[in-house]
Amino acid sequence: MRIPQHIAIIMDGNGRWAKARGLNRSMGHQEGVEAVRRITTACSNMGVKYLTLYTFSTENWNRPAPEVAALMQLILEAMEEEIFMKNNVRMRVIGDLSRVPENVLASIRHCEQRTSTNTGMTMVIALSYSSKWEITEAVRQIAREAAEGTRTIESIDETTIDRHLATSFMPDPDLLIRTGGELRLSNYLLWQLAYAEFYFTDTLWPDFDEPHLQAAIEEYNNRERRYGKTSEQVAE
């Protein structure tokens, strides 16, 4: 099979998974962390180069305070080095980290530093992230450069925007997976997903495992990626 170079995932369904079992929502998030560990290992073994996980959106700050606190604690606990070091995985974080608690931020920075020399897959955690926030920040940076005279308006093109996004260090996703049965992007990587293949599944994130991942990649292999060209042009 062709293995996608970059897989992006919207991990949806933790709360519904817990509710169906009569459990607190936090239990669903805990099981979701276990799914992250499974899929990180599976993707690394398959040869995926980048795995980007939508962990916590800027809109998630509007959830009840106890749930937000529980999520932050889970993120803190998930920053254990074993999963990264065992799989030679580098960890990176993108998002508006100004609202993230200091202890969580310190753990993130420590994990980024400790894994910075790992040469295998890069796992990117989208934390306190939204695509509209990211694009707005990029526009501000470019406008500031223009105002300072270090850039002309005419020099601004798609590459300029790419280089000012939080994701500038990695290629755009080849495959987007969304679990939980919803059919929307939820303000996630809107610029970067322009030509990605989309795969939606009803499977809730805590139940998502390697066979589900393989099914998504098999479906990806059945797609013809044309990037606006005709089938005949792609075949040439």
Question: Key terms for this structure?
Answer:
alpha/beta; Undecaprenyl pyrophosphate synthetase; 6-stranded parallel β-sheet; globular
Write down how many β-strands occur, each being a DSSP E stretch of 2 or more residues.
6
Largest sheet: 6 strands, parallel
The arrangement of helices and strands along the chain is: EHHEHHEHEHHEEHH
Q: What spatial form do the alpha-carbon principal axes imply?
A: globular
Which structural class matches the secondary elements?
Answer: alpha/beta
Mean of residue pLDDT values: 93
Please, could you describe this protein's structure?
The chain contains nine helices and six strands; from the N terminus they run βααβααβαβααββαα. The longest helix is centred in the first third of the chain and has 22 residues, at 25-46. The protein has a six-stranded parallel β-sheet, sandwiched between helices. α1 crosses α2, α2 runs parallel beside α3 (65-78) and α3 (65-78) packs parallel to α5. It has a single domain (6-132, 172-235), classed as Decaprenyl diphosphate synthase-like (Undecaprenyl pyrophosphate synthetase, 3-Layer(aba) Sandwich). The mean pLDDT is 93. It is α/β, with parallel strands linked by helices and 236 residues long. It is globular.
